[in-house]
Amino acid sequence: MTHIHRISIVCCLALFAWTTAAQDASSQMKGLLIDASELQNQQAESLEQLGMKQMVIAIEASPTPSQTQALERLEKSGLDIWYWIEIARDEKMATEHPEWMASIQGHPEWRRFHPDFPKEKENEVVKVYPWVPVFYEGAFDAHLKKVNNLLEQWPTSKGIFLNDLQGAPTACGCGHTLCRWTTDYGPKKSAKNMGHTAPAQFVKRVQETHPDLECIPVWATECEAHDKDGMCAGVGCYNGACWREWSKQLEPLAKTTPHLGVLLTYKELERDLPIYKEPAGWINKAIGAFDTESTRFQHPSVKPNRLVGILQGWDTSTEEIKAQIRQTEKSNTHGYILSNINISTQWEPRIFHMKVAP
């Protein structure tokens, strides 16, 4: 995968022995997310002794014979094998089909991060590279083909995590990485949008083709009220469309599957702020948002026991990882997956030339 930042596997595994006794070992997920290239380095016996139950492998290409052998060895040890597939952040697809990328229109505040970026012309639109959301018809079909091809090539697993089924970061124009409710906040369209049910439709299509696999879509939260004068640069995102559209998209998605992943990579998302008081304190608030923010807009809440936290294991200390686990466990979630890969939320603007009607 792109932008992989590895941490010490030994350090990570030691942390799995550090859990609260209150957790129900028979039902809670507790796993490690690694890149497929790290499969051969995993020691099945050590993982089993530490009580680890899930090994999640990020896949984006066909498996090698040695990777298949490593999977068989890990599965024989009693581990549940899961796959992680990145959806929207796809450099290859963005390069081949720039018309499917989300755009940045409306608010110009994002330009504070790119002060020298040229002003788009009337027949141009700024795209969010390399984000290709499933909301577009062509992208929807291409991502579905990608997922099906990968699952056909890799050995059967317990389930799959599908990451980034939402819109693109800062597509509203404010510049906040967590404002990802939209694809085109403006009049210029280069692809047909399928509407707010697209993520739910995508999961259903995957489930129809692979009915024996549990499918867990990974969902990110939106901005917060205190971000208005900071990361939203004065744009009233929190009381605007962000959470309303987030809830509208989440409701049909939550009906497709018993569990949802929650992207809780708090440092990558710049949520390691003093305002949260406790170390990794934002995690507890983000988990609660699936209840509070959904009900704020009259949509059914999603309770914590349906959520699986995706925690940041890269660029973090042992104490920071412990804090993340502690926040997740005290929120009574369905468990957590500690990511050993950099789940990047980075983006950059690209000019796209619109087709002019004859």
Quaternary assembly: single chain
Mean pLDDT across all amino acids: 90
**Major β-sheet profile:** 8 strands, parallel, barrel
Q: What is the N-to-C succession of helices and strands? A: HEHEHEHEHEHEHEHEHEE
Architecture in CATH? Alpha-Beta Barrel
The Cα radius of gyration reads 20 Å
How many distinct folded domains? Answer: 1
Shape: globular
CATH class: Alpha Beta
- What is the β-strand count? 10
CATH topology: TIM Barrel
As residue ranges, the low-confidence spans are 1-23
Major sheet: order of its strands? 1-2-3-5-6-7-8-9
Roughly what percent helix? Answer: 25-40%
**Measured distance between first and last alpha carbons:** 41 Å
Q: For the record, what is the CATH homologous superfamily label?
A: Phosphoenolpyruvate-binding domains
Helix run count: 9
Question: Pairing-aware structural class of the strands and helices?
Answer: alpha/beta
Strand content: 15-25%
